[in-house]
Amino acid sequence: MSDAEDAGHRRAGRPLETVLTKPRITAAALRLIGATGYASFTMSGLARSLGVAPSALYNHAASKQVVLQWLQDHVMTMVDVAGFGAERWDTALRRWAWSYRDIFATHVPLISIVAVLPVTGAPQTLRMYETVAAGLAAAGVPSAQIVPSIVALESFIFGSAFDVTAPADIFETGALAQSSPIFSAAVGHGHENTEKSRADVAFEFGLEALVDRIDGLRRP
Amino acid sequence: MSDAEDAGHRRAGRPLETVLTKPRITAAALRLIGATGYASFTMSGLARSLGVAPSALYNHAASKQVVLQWLQDHVMTMVDVAGFGAERWDTALRRWAWSYRDIFATHVPLISIVAVLPVTGAPQTLRMYETVAAGLAAAGVPSAQIVPSIVALESFIFGSAFDVTAPADIFETGALAQSSPIFSAAVGHGHENTEKSRADVAFEFGLEALVDRIDGLRRP
DNA sequence: ACCTGAACACCGTTCAAGT
DNA sequence: ACCTGAACACCGTTCAAGT
Q: At a CB cut-off of 8 Å and minimum separation 6, what does A135 contact?
């Protein structure tokens, strides 16, 4: 659908040879970031990967920020919302939340963009919100409580996505252990559980707290 | 204490005239960011505010990232932990959480730093963790549950800090309202509550969910 | 309408030279 | 030990000139 809207201005009968469309730029950016990460993602690099001069990009995207906005909205389509309407509401919600966290843990720099970009500029993001909202409404969550529920979940998900990228020993107090005995002992207890990562344990704890609260909002 | 440790290498009897100490650089950075924001915060600007050449900073901080790490740890001392030991555990926890969110809402670029910086490099941050951990332990939260509780709260707080900076109309669907009827209706209900912001309503909802869960962990 | 190549106004950081 | 000034290797972005 975005392919059509982007190429819509070309004349009928004229062969399609334009490389620089919004979906193609987005796809190239996603590929490039997947290969080398966000730190080395530059407009020059993006242009090179598309076989074009850097300045050519500015005929299609007003700024690098806009390219990242396109990418953010595209990444949202990768979040798993298939549970809604197919599974129990809470199973669908957990599936969505875990998938959402995992995807943004690999796209952390996009978090600051989703968090402040109006939904009118991100149609796929709005689509996701609609699916989740419909799932909550069908479960009996009152309309007035849907936005606070989604925002609270999303805030927790974004913060947890950061946490996934933290080093495993982030809480090791080392030489400072004497000055923080209670916290250091608590960190020590964490080493007993080896099957699940520290980030996963905390995410599960918080997610269940939120799901439980949302459960309490439901009306028959 | 950091004043002493930083100036500790100077000889006794030699007058203190050095401007570029860790606490002074940190204070200057905080002042500069308070005045003009993170977007325009540069090493050149920081050097200018200290009356020094940009390259002089590199005799004290290895990189701009290090300056931001110092700043992050300093900002942590501004978080309100005074409730612990003085108020009921849950009152203290709420007070801490709201203050933590508010401070990082004005220092959003520091979030990605706290989230991944080992505590050994951030003594004030560790101090805060110790105070919160002690508060939870005194409330009866088992040692093994303290880290997941703090991490879940912190993740929620970081995500919520982003949310505070979002424009008020971020969820207004506008022309796309037809394609998202349930979500748009839910957003409409939000306008009824005018005394509290959307971000505050969601933060309160999520925070109470987490506090409640932590309450359930307590043992006598 | 859209591309190229050169240029601009920055960045953070390094380093020889000073004291 | 620590500062200056010049330089380096980049950035994102603009714009005249082409087709």
A: A83, A84, A85, A89, A92, A93
